[in-house]
Backbone:
């Protein structure tokens, strides 16, 4: 099956690419292996300079990359610009801070000298989704490449032009040829790539079902993996919340990228005192969102990425209505060409409805009415997912205390959930495991290696080893944290 680049706003096929055979895949893995060895030996300073050039390239060409994202998966153009800029931010962040994250770390033991070193694993396979076709790749690639690894990318089949553009970004910045390679392989070939001994770890972002398959294959072959899967993030509004602010951020969080975000607010959990007022304000704001051509700056909501995704979303909505949910806005595909779905709200969602238990990956907000504050926390945790969460209250101290009870990889108090290179990102439960970003993310794909040395006699000064050319001298994690704060 060829890769097909199709504009979801018009249905136009823009370009097709043939899938690779096994020999082409094998060649790419061998070339990556060779490139990785040279990349690591070049030393951190050279890697950091190269990653800085990647960031500069992204910013210099942001208009072209943003247009490509919009054409290939339907993201409104202004959101696509932000995605490119955020990708550059991640590259710049690791270029500036990677040395601190990878510095040898001394540990006091019974040895004359003992410490921890961080060395790359080798070649990382990244299996990535279509919804943030640049950001998802760069947030994995920036730390992995900075640490000295190579990366091969199996991108989603509906964004092949984005995948090849990302490869070209790294090549234009002067990284070694083949260090980052897009594999134009089919889904059925992924298992063989995971099993290949030239692959040392896997990072995957996507659906829960696909994540289980990737994890099983990685486990069967004893390969490290990081999984960032689906989410059904709770957005808890307490009785003392600033409703204007909460409603504004609710709309931003739920309808960004036509609702196609793992960390979008998906379950609006409301206490009785503010429920009716919040729903009224939410409906008023959502009704004003402009649905249309994603290339126009005035458009707030573009098409969904594919027609089959829109059809599945609508089945979830209609089933939930049949199971008792109340449609108060939209809840139907938009008329005309393209994979458009009307901005929608389902109220009075209960555990009887699909929408209560499943992730709705599109522009549909679901409202769940809690009995009280304690019930709101209980509902928030009544899910198999655990990616992001947010909590809204004017009493930030009390809200912060409650945030510790929410079962998720992060909780934002009076703020929209977002990923940030400075903070670890990932989930628990069926939302996956492992972390991306921050120093946690760069440590996922390195060998955390102990070195223990006992000095048995006075050393010969002429035989002393030279300073480690891969990083600065040893320093404690505490001193690193102080430097980065």
Residues:
């Amino acid at each position: 099956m060829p890769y097909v680049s199709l504009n979801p706003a018009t249905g136009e096929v823009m370009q097709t690419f043939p899938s690779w055979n096994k020999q082409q895949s094998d060649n790419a893995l061998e070339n990556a292996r060779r490139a990785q060895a040279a990349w690591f030996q070049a030393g951190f300073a050279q890697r950091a300079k190269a990653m800085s050039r990647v960031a500069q390239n992204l910013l210099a060409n942001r208009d072209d990359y943003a247009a490509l994202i919009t054409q290939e998966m339907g993201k409104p153009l202004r959101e696509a610009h932000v995605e490119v800029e955020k990708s550059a931010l991640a590259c710049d962040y690791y270029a500036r801070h990677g040395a601190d994250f990878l510095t040898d770390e001394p540990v006091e033991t019974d040895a004359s000298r003992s410490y921890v070193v961080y060395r790359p694993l080798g070649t990382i396979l990244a299996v990535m989704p279509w919804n943030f076709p640049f950001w998802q790749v760069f947030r994995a690639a920036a730390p992995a490449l900075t640490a000295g690894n190579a990366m091969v990318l199996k991108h989603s089949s509906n964004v092949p032009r984005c995948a090849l553009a990302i490869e070209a970004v790294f090549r234009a910045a002067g990284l070694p040829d083949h260090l980052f390679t897009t594999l134009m392989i089919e889904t059925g070939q992924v298992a063989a790539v995971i099993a290949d001994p030239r692959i040392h770890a896997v990072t995957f972002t996507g659906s829960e079902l696909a994540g289980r398959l990737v994890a099983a294959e990685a486990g069967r072959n004893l390969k490290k993996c990081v999984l960032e899967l689906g989410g059904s993030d709770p957005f808890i509004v307490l009785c003392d919340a600033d409703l204007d602010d909460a409603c504004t951020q609710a709309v931003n969080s739920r309808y960004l990228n036509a609702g196609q975000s793992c960390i979008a607010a998906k379950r609006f959990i409301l206490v009785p005192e503010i429920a009716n007022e919040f729903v009224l304000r939410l409906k008023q704001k959502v009704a004003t969102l402009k649905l249309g051509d994603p290339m126009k700056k005035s458009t707030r909501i573009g098409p969904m990425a594919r027609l089959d995704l829109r059809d599945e979303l609508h089945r979830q909505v209609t089933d939930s209505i049949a199971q008792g949910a109340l449609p108060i806005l939209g809840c139907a595909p938009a008329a005309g060409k393209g994979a458009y779905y009307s901005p929608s709200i389902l109220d009075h969602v209960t555990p009887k409805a699909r929408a209560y238990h499943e992730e709705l990956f599109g522009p549909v907000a679901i409202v769940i009415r809690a009995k009280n504050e304690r019930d709101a926390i209980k509902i928030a945790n009544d899910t198999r997912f655990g990616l992001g969460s947010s909590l809204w209250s004017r009493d930030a101290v009390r809200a912060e205390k409650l945030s510790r009870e929410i079962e998720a990889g992060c909780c934002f108090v009076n703020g929209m959930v977002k990923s940030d290179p400075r903070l670890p990102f990932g989930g628990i439960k069926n939302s996956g495991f492992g972390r991306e970003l921050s120093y946690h993310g760069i440590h996922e794909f390195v060998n955390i290696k102990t070195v223990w040395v006992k000095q048995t006699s006075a050393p010969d000064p002429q035989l002393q080893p030279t300073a480690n050319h891969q990083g600065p001298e040893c320093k404690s994690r505490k001193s690193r944290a102080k430097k980065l704060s």
